[in-house]
Write a structure and sequence with these properties.
The chain has 132 residues and is an alpha+beta fold. It folds into 2 domains: 52 residues; 77 residues, Immunoglobulin-like, CATH 2.60.40. A 3-stranded antiparallel sheet has the order 1-6-3. It has a 3-stranded antiparallel sheet with strand order 2-5-4, with no helix packed on it. A hairpin with a 5-residue loop joins strand 4 and strand 5. The longest helix is centred in the first third of the chain and has 35 residues. It is elongated. The mean pLDDT is 77.
Amino acid sequence: MAKQTVLPQRPARKAPAEQQVWTTWTMLLYFINSIYDGQIASILSQIAAIGGAATIQAGSVNMPAGQTTVTVNHTLGAPNAVAVTPVSQEVALAWGGDAFWITGKTNNQFVINVAVVAPAGGLNFDWVVKTT
């Protein structure tokens, strides 16, 4: 059976509404600070122990106008996952047709490819690289 959380106080039924609200608020803060934060820290450490320490690096890049590729540099070593999201006003160009894809993953870079030529102002992408 799971251990039940015992809060340090409870609102009195006949107390004024303001006191009941204040007591409820302080109990919520107690729960967040004393119990919830500790549980989240414990879960994160268990995840790190199972999967190893994951390292993440993120950034933004602009594919210049007239181009169909842009090289992104990072410092993580061999990545096992690259995620890219187009964020420019011309996002429909990046998502439409054959959209975009990643090639050339190495220890310190990858290439974003698009099926259309980047318009004036280019195409902006947010990216994340994860390695364990």
